[in-house]
Amino acid sequence: MSFPGYGRFRVVAAQRTEPLIPNGVMGMLIFVVTEAMLFAGLISAFTIIRSSAIVWPPPGQPRLPFEATALNTAALLASAAALYWARRRFDRDRRTARAPLGIAVVLGACFVGFQGAEWVAMLSQGLTLTSSTLGSFFYLIVGFHGLHALAALAVLILTWVRLQRGWLASSQLGTAEVFWYFVAGIWPVLWLVVYR
Amino acid sequence: MMALRAAWTALVCGLFVALPRAAWACAVCTGQDDAAFSLAMLKGTALLSLLPLALIGSLVWYLRRRAREIAASGPAPRVQESSR
Q: In the beta sheet, which residues pair with residue B81?
């Protein structure tokens, strides 16, 4: 290859030995950023509707169980801490990461299960998707988060199975971590905004 | 009869002049103190404006930091010059 005034060059392919971030982690980060914007939009809409209401919660609607959900919030945060612990152990000796990853899965399942029970209780008290603006926003925002929690829990379980079988790569654990940290990190915000 | 109608019209117009906020407001907002609503709108606007900047900025900052770490630890990609 020749360029006027620059002599002859042979361009060889650049050999990168290590990517900046594994592709899976990068993809999950982009997904998480877009989902964060979606939740921000929902939170913003809820805050505006709530501020324009004369009475909150609307007449005839139950008060959301703020205190009872605090325990559930603690379980989810503890699950994220267990996952962080699993990562630390994975980097040293991956076999020792089984127990903390299992704890993260169990605590995450507790969160999802408690959320389901709470929905049943709320429905029996008359809070439905069409009963009021509170019901609409509650099931939209919390339901959307629950959907994410279910998907992230499935990823965590898959990660744990792969770890058990010795197939788990560091990048796969990183991808699951990003998703679960997002689910756990956004929940306290939703809890404080929607339940209080 | 005409005088009564004129008086009634004048009264309604007078009320609209006296209560311009109620006259201009939509049915949903009439009669409420809108300070909380305005604050919520402001907070929502700030959140939706700043959050994408913060998220994308954090991602770019992290990628740059990783690139520097990799550059410091290993050889950089190279372009080989030919003698031909």
A: A9
Rounded CA separation A187/A35 (Å): 13
Contact A147, A42 (CB under 8 A): no
In this prediction the pTM is: 0.79
What ipTM score was computed for the predicted complex, to two decimals?
A: 0.75
CB pairs under 8 A between A and B: 72
Tell me the nearest-neighbour CA distance from B16 into chain A, angstroms: 23
d(CA A39, CA A47): 12
More confident residue, A99 or B32: A99
* Cα(A140)–Cα(A41) distance, integer angstroms: 12
For residues A139 and A51, give the distance between their C-alpha atoms in angstroms, rounded to a whole number.
Answer: 19
Q: pLDDT tens digits for B30-77?
A: 555 678 888 999 999 999 999 999 999 999 999 999 889 888 886 655
Both tokens of A68, joined, read: 């009872």
- Provide, as residue numbers in chain A, all residues whose Cβ is less than 8 Å from the Cβ of B70: 18, 20
Round to the nearest angstrom and report the end-to-end CA distance of chain A.
68
